[in-house]
Amino acid sequence: MSPFEVLGFSKSFNLDLDEIEKRYYELSRQLHPDHILVTDPKIKLEALEKSALLNQAYLKLKNPEKRLEALLELVGVPEQFKSERLQDSKNIPHELAEKFFELQENGLNSPEATSFKAALKVEKEAVFTEIFSLAVKINWDTPAVEFVQKILNLKQKLSYIRSLVQNLERHQNVSEL
């Protein structure tokens, strides 16, 4: 069962977080093994499995990134294309890569590197906003391939930005030692 089915929601990115939590707690009270008064171990195990499935569904749906991953899985996007680690060179923001390489040559511990890291974080938030605004517009029952592909391209861009930020932070932490 998909996390949407488990919690009783339609396939949609635009879910109300309060409603997700409310539904989770309602179902949790019904399904939690501690509330099952039967002593039959098979029924207890079944309740434990349902409760675990409910917890997993809740964790996926309450987090927008994980919710998007669940939607991509439901529309049949193969695992290797969902991964942010898959890098297609056309999705690498070349201006960011060039700036990073320039900073590597001049020293990643400069004030310029710190301001670049701040700019990357702003860019990361802009990419998140673009991904989420696309995800809200998609009819996930019959998604248009071009919209799904655009989301995948943006996820790869996001991955590259995250990687640059991690490299800067790692270098700055090593320099402080």
Report what the structure shows.
- With 177 residues, the chain is mainly α.
- The protein has 2 domains: 3-62, Helix Hairpins (Orthogonal Bundle), CATH 1.10.287.110; 79-176.
- It has helices spanning 3-7, 17-31, 41-62, 64-74, 79-82, 94-106, 111-137, 145-176.
- The longest helix is centred in the C-terminal third of the chain and has 32 residues, at 145-176.
Q: How many structurally independent domains?
A: 2
Find the structural class using helix and strand composition.
mainly alpha
- Total beta strand runs: 0
First-residue to last-residue Cα separation: 49 Å
Taken in chain order, the helices and strands follow as HHHHHHHH
Overall form: elongated
Q: Estimate percent helicity.
A: over 70%
DSSP helix count? 8
Looking at how many chains there are and whether they match, the oligomeric state comes to: single chain
Major beta sheet summary: none
Q: C-alpha Rg, in Å?
A: 21 Å
User: What's the mean pLDDT score?
Assistant: 86
What are the segments in which pLDDT stays under 50 over at least 5 consecutive residues?
none
Beta-strand content: under 5%
Question: Quick gist of this model?
Answer:
73% of the residues lie in helices and 0% in strands. With 177 residues, the chain is an all-alpha fold.
List keywords for this structure.
single chain; mainly alpha; 177 residues; Helix Hairpins
